[in-house]
Specification:
Elements: E1 4-8, H1 12-23, E2 27-31, E3 43-46, H2 48-56, H3 60-66, E4 68-70, E5 76-77, E6 83-85, E7 95-99, H4 100-110, E8 116-117, E9 122-128, E10 139-144, E11 149-152, E12 154-157, H5 164-169, E13 175-187, E14 195-199, E15 202-209, E16 213-221, H6 232-239, H7 247-252, E17 260-267, E18 274-275, E19 278-280, H8 283-286, H9 295-312, H10 316-346, H11 348-360, H12 363-369, H13 376-379
Parallel strand pairs: 1-2, 1-12, 2-8, 5-14, 12-19
Antiparallel strand pairs: 3-7, 4-7, 5-6, 9-10, 10-11, 13-16, 13-17, 14-15, 15-16, 18-19
Helix pairs in contact: 1-4, 1-9, 2-9, 9-10, 10-11
Organism: Amycolatopsis coloradensis
Protein name: FAD-dependent monooxygenase
Keywords: Monooxygenase, Oxidoreductase
């Protein structure tokens, strides 16, 4: 089965969805509301499950070129600098760290020319007969600014936590503030090992990324969302000024205008990710706390699973049911776990219990726990995407 899809959102999830469709012989139009396709944010890491999905998309090699191995999960520290656990030289790193824009570019360059349309903000969605396909089920039509309409067999909503498509079809499902806020930045400091420092009320994460840079994130509690400061870098610098180096150095080396301040939110669980010929993907379906580093990775998984279902089922409806059945339990369990991890690392009492447990754990057991196939999230294997010339 082949067809035409509209993908709303040109971020990592949307581009992964379009590339997965391309791999199985579908055509797609990606609608991006901004004037330049890109990725908002600073850095991130991808774990083995996401890297396997990138391999199925045919871009793992390119991703590894722009990624840097990081031992952030192996190097756990206290603000004093003391190590709770420490990676050994030569230990394999399970995670690969990226500047978000670098991974976005890998996906964008793998797509056929002309598949991404910019300045295309979706304002409404219609479904049913006359909305666009020739398969007897009725397709989907989107309305964009300026009166433009596009129709297709399938709509994939990958337009983020504040998804316009989701708000139209599931108006009562809203993002929720998790009581935490984060500062993010990138500094030109080379050769830093990845690490995570657990402090009172928050943690400081460091990942090395390409071109002699380091990505950092400081996550802490907040009584309410949208609290902002005239000098964001000064604010975060004051909060970590007594923490071990290179933390203060990293903050000070980050350009003032490049410090990003965001609030941590996730999404209320949805009963389903499908509605007629519409499928939600990535943050539009299951936005989650960043504490397990799975937000973008789960969207890449979504893309591969959806394409495999479309390639393997006799109808779009059957494919969407399969996608929903496979993705909803996994992504919602991952989101619950991420929220729990966030509470453990920012609650003072929970943090003390966590650091005591980590300190008392034998190093060999800790290393086993952060190995490539150490947990169910990382052990996931993607379905195979058959080429359009192969029998389904």
């Amino acid at each position: 089965m082949t067809g035409q899809a509209i993908v709303v959102g040109g971020g990592i999830g949307g581009l992964a969805a379009a590339l997965a469709l391309h791999r199985i012989g579908w055509r797609a139009t990606v609608l991006e509301r901004t004037s330049e396709p890109g990725e908002i944010g600073a850095g991130m890491s991808q774990s083995p499950n996401a890297l396997r999905a990138l391999a199925e998309l045919g871009v793992e090699t390119q991703a590894r070129i722009v990624g840097v191995p990081t031992h952030a999960t192996g190097n756990l520290r206290l603000p004093s600098g003391r190590y709770l656990q420490r990676a050994r030289p030569g230990d394999p790193a399970a995670l690969l760290a990226f500047h978000r824009a670098d991974l976005h570019r890998v996906l964008l360059e793998a797509l056929p020319t002309g598949w991404v349309r910019t300045d295309a903000e979706v304002t409404a969605v219609r479904q049913g007969r006359g909305a666009g396909d020739d398969k007897g089920g009725g397709g989907v039509t989107v309305e964009c600014g300026g009166g433009t309409e596009l129709s297709a067999d399938l709509l994939i909503a990958a337009d983020g936590i504040h998804s316009v498509v989701r708000r139209q079809l599931w108006p009562d499902t809203l993002p929720r503030f998790l009581g935490r806020t984060a500062w993010l930045g990138i500094a030109e400091i080379p050769d830093l090992p990845g690490s995570m420092t657990l402090g009172p009320g928050g943690y400081f994460l460091i990942h090395p990324i390409t071109r002699g840079r380091a990505y950092w994130a400081y996550v802490t509690t907040a009584e309410e969302p949208s609290i902002r400061y005239d000098q964001e870098r000064t604010e975060v610098a004051g909060r970590v000024q007594d923490w071990h180096e290179p933390i203060p150095q990293l903050v000070e080396a980050t350009p003032v205008e490049a410090v990003i301040h965001i609030d941590i939110r996730d999404l209320e669980p949805l009963p389903t990710y499908i509605h007629g010929r519409v499928a939600l993907l990535g943050d539009a379906a299951h936005a989650m706390s960043p504490d397990r580093g799975q937000g973008a990775g789960q969207s890449i998984e979504d893309a591969v699973v959806l394409a495999a279902a479309l390639a393997g089922e006799p109808s779009i409806e059957a494919a969407l049911r399969r996608y929903d059945a496979e993705r909803l339990p996994r992504t919602q369990a991952t989101a619950r776990g991420a929220a729990t991890d966030g509470r453990r690392t920012t609650s003072r009492a929970a943090r003390l219990a966590l650091t005591t447990m980590i300190r008392s754990m034998p190093a060999s057991l800790w290393r086993k726990g952060i190995a490539v196939d150490s947990n169910p999230i990382w052990r996931w294997r993607p379905p195979h995407l058959p080429s359009p010339t192969c029998p389904h």
